[in-house]
Write a sequence for this structure.
């Protein structure tokens, strides 16, 4: 049996399509709530601008009227203040509601994918799955990928929120000056590219370390399972098996730590550049 290799973009596209098919209702709720939450900061900025402009205009007139009476006599200022309060309250409420909806989305998609994996293994045409190292490595990577489904759900929600925040922010920035979006894009793109590059390197290391992880799980099963409980105690095998498990763990950890350290340093550097562009 030949393993089909797919690109990261194809994997991401399949993941998004799967989420849309499995949790359409929860995803719809999250999209609506995220749209409202994403538009909140832009609306709040605009309302604050109106409030500042109105207060500046009133101060320039040199009026001595009572402050509360003055505010009540200005419908634009009064409505802007009320709108700012409402936007902040709604944004806080949406953040709390969104967490409950996200929990439901995460649990449903995790259960569906776990069921798919179990069904695929159980209905495999023969036992070649358990006799082929490459297939066992693939199964190990799949099980590890299922554990990362909550992270995928978080990133999808963040992507939606970013899109809904991005559009109003671009419109506001263009209204100030046409070159502002160009600076934001040119400064933020390198950091995103570097982060994507090192994430791909982390995945390559995980693929090469799949057999090591299988061996670690074997030692874990022997040490914590019921099958060999008497034998390992009879022959005092705990120190030997524990030392092997810790040795394999250190091997995987060092390989991942080197890449993460380099990636963190590069991303921090380019993020500072991105922050400079925002400033």
């Amino acid at each position: 049996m030949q393993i089909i290799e797919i690109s990261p973009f194809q994997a991401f596209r399949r993941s998004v399509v799967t989420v849309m098919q499995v949790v359409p209702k929860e995803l719809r709720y999250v999209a609506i709530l995220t749209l409202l939450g994403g538009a909140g900061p832009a609306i709040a900025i605009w309302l604050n601008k109106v409030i500042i402009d109105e207060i500046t205009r009133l101060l320039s007139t040199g009026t001595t009227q009572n402050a509360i009476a003055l505010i009540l006599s200005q419908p634009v200022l009064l409505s802007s203040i009320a709108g700012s309060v409402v936007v902040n309250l709604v944004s806080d409420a949406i953040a709390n509601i969104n967490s409950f909806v996200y929990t439901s989305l995460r649990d449903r998609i995790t259960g569906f994918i776990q069921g798919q994996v179990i069904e695929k293994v159980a209905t495999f045409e023969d036992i070649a799955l358990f006799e082929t190292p490459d297939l066992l490595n693939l199964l190990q990577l799949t099980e590890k990928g299922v554990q990362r489904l909550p992270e995928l759900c978080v990133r999808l929600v963040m992507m939606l929120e970013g899109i809904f925040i991005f559009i109003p922010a671009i419109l506001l920035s263009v209204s100030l000056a046409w070159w502002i979006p160009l600076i934001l894009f040119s400064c933020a793109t390198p950091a995103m590219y570097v982060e994507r590059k090192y994430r791909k390197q982390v995945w390559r290391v995980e693929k090469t370390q799949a057999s090591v992880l299988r061996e670690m799980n074997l030692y874990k099963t022997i040490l914590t399972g019921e099958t060999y409980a008497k034998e390992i105690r009879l022959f005092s095998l705990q120190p030997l098996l524990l030392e092997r498990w810790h040795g394999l763990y250190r091997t995987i950890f060092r390989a991942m730590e080197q890449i993460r350290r380099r990636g963190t340093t590069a991303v921090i550097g380019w993020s500072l550049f991105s922050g400079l562009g925002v400033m």
